[in-house]
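Most newcomers find our protein records easier to grasp once they have seen one. Each record describes a single protein and holds just a pair of labelled lines. A learned vocabulary of local backbone shapes supplies the integers on the structure line. Nothing more is needed to start thinking about how sequence determines fold. The record below serves as our worked example for the rest of this section.
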Amino acid sequence: MAGSNEVNVNESKRVVPLNTWILISNFKLAYNMLRRPDGTFNRDLNEFLDRKVTANAIPVDGVYSFDVVDRATSLLNRVYLTAREDEPQLRVVGDEKPLSSSEIVPVILFFHGGSFVHSSANSAIYDTFCRRLVSTCKAAVVSVNYRRSPEHRYPCAYDDGWSALKWVHSRPWLKSGKDPKVHVYLAGDSSGGNIAHHVAVRAAEEGVEVKGNILLHPLFGGEERTESEKRLDGKYFVRIQDRDWYWRAYLPEGEDRDHPACNVFGPRSRTLEGLNFPKSLVVVAGLDLLQDWQLGYVKGLEKSDNKVKLLYLEKATIGFYFLPNNDHFHSLMDEMKSFIES
């Protein structure tokens, strides 16, 4: 009989396109090398292995980008904009001209995934994904280089997300429309989806406008072991013990997974009832072991009378959106475009 690891590898190869399987498998191999049993992390090796790309002032496929550091917080944001034919000179920092004075140009504030630990705003996979968002959604994208754990635990990533939201709202060159203002949507995958939720909650509490949330298989959890966690443990790139390691690395020392950062509708979390919480698009991959927590999140939003759209992709795994080689990718792009335009 084949060993369980071989069975799991063969099953994931059968479901996932080969080049996507190779990409995610390489990430998994690297991640296993970087995590240490004592809860520390090999950051130097991580930075060496993470393929990064520079911003490009010369447009590629109609999109150009530049990095901006918020002087107040030292937080780096990578900005992606459409290169317009009627603007021969590309936008530079300090230019106060709005994105458009006639039509609305959405601004997607994006938080990359990586379980609060891996990747960055200039990681190649996220640079490519943000460019696709610009083209698909006809939007500007601001990708946030938030601080990562375990060096920077809760609530650092949320604080950086909040700072980035305020920074975006303060940029006159990100405004658009006849009555110019910044039309902000929050988006993120994995831990980035978790960050988007918590930033949106704070925005609702403090009266800062967010037009909508887009969460791609967001990283939620709790002390209880759900059916999907037991059934899918180790089968499609992810093990429960790995997820537990990342929560121990991010949450305050001594906290468990029922902390409100992780279990957002758990016994210790605040209610969203009465909050002017933005509409949400929640994308759940049917082969992600955390799907029960994500589906529970959708139910929690519904119970709080918040508008939410669920996109459930039965045969999708984590990371299906990194390459445009599957139907799930195109379904996601269509839904995101429709969500922002609605």
Q: What stands out?
A: Residues 1-7 have pLDDT under 50 and may be disordered. The chain has ten helices and eight strands. Residues 34 and 42 are 5 Å apart (CA to CA). The two ends are 52 Å apart (CA to CA).
